[in-house]
Amino acid sequence: MLTNNPGSSATTMNNAGCIAASDEFLHVVWTDNRSGEAEVYYKRSTDQGKTWGMDTRISDLGSASANPTIAVSGSVIHVVWNDDRDGNLEIYYKSSTDGGLTWGADTRLTNDSDVSQHPSLSVSGSNVHVVWYDDRTLNGQIFYIHSPDAGVSWDSEKQLESNENFSKITSVASSGSDVHVVWHSMNIISGTDNLFYTHSTDDGLSWSSPEQLTNDLTCVYPSIAVSGSTVHVVWFDGRDGGGSTEIYYKQSSDEGSTWGPDTRLSNNTGYSSYPFVMASGANVHLVWQDNPDSKINIYYRQSVDYGLNWDTELELSNATYAYYGSVAASASALNVVWTERVFGNDDILYKRNLAVNPVGLAEFAKSGNKLNVYPNPFLNEITAITSDNLPGEIIIYDISSRKLIQKEFTNTITIDASQLPKGIYICEVRNTGGVLQNSKLVKN
After folding, report:
1. Which CATH class is domain 371-443?
2. For residues 7 and 399, what is the distance between their CA atoms, to the nearest angstrom?
3. Taken in order 99, 103, 109, 112, is the CA torsion positive or negative?
């Protein structure tokens, strides 16, 4: 349990992550009313979740602050939330440049007379991307803003869609200069809710025309993740009838150009809702809340092949009421936080799993394959050797899942990596049978 105070604490809905990981550090944000009004609090672990520091309030007292979301790039931590200090809800931003020890001033990102709320945040290097929905037009609409310098300055905001539909919850993911945004929109005439998607290839400077991803009655509350060229979207809807909702998944393997079919990932008699997805390499992790009995608990599924196949679901919590889970994968563990009702009060719960292969950073090999990638750490060259005599490829990603090097080979290859700066990289080796190994490489 990460919180234990007289007030209620709550994570944010599934469009926004409340936990972020960078090497050994974990960072968590939540909403807390211990002071009598909702405020944003922060907590960190410097040892992969074994121990945790003190709670830190990072929003100003005297106004209602809620729906925080967090992202990290190296030692820079970024947080956004909605805040009513200006007389109506606006989007605010705050950052720490020293791993959460100290925090800069609040930055107001929106300035209009109507409600701006439920932000979603993604960071790729020094590029910070924020989306939210806003009531300034006749209908609720999706807006976007970008910082090219880790939150020091911000470009002008952009409206990502026209005004025909009433749009609401939105989610953003980025990799390199590619930015992906999804939201759900209600058709004012038909009353149906469906998902829409747009994509930028130039850090938000220009955007594709919004594309409708689903065609059903009620597709709502999406979450999006990206790894390399593969984009993952999850949501819940009631298309299967019986008075329940289920979790659905959809993917694009070509950076959002084309999309596969809707795939149902839950199969319970109750309400499966509020899914959150994250991805790194070939590994995709999904958490959601479900009530197959009289209780509501957090469930988990993973895919190790880019969402093509999924493992059996696991129940992570054992509570009467647990909700709004989010997940982050670090170098050696999978980390999940959620809100749980404990003795009549809501608190933040944390769970980690050291046994899983969360982001492919623990080396593994399929049965019958012998694979070696060396040296590690490396200076200028990386060599991969396999014994399967099949055509394959080796891909090097940075920690933001941006593809840096991709080479085809059979049996052995040596790659010139002298142009890469010092740091941590993800090495993926594949052949026609799938992923042979995901591993962490360090360049000295």
Report:
1. mainly beta
2. 37
3. positive
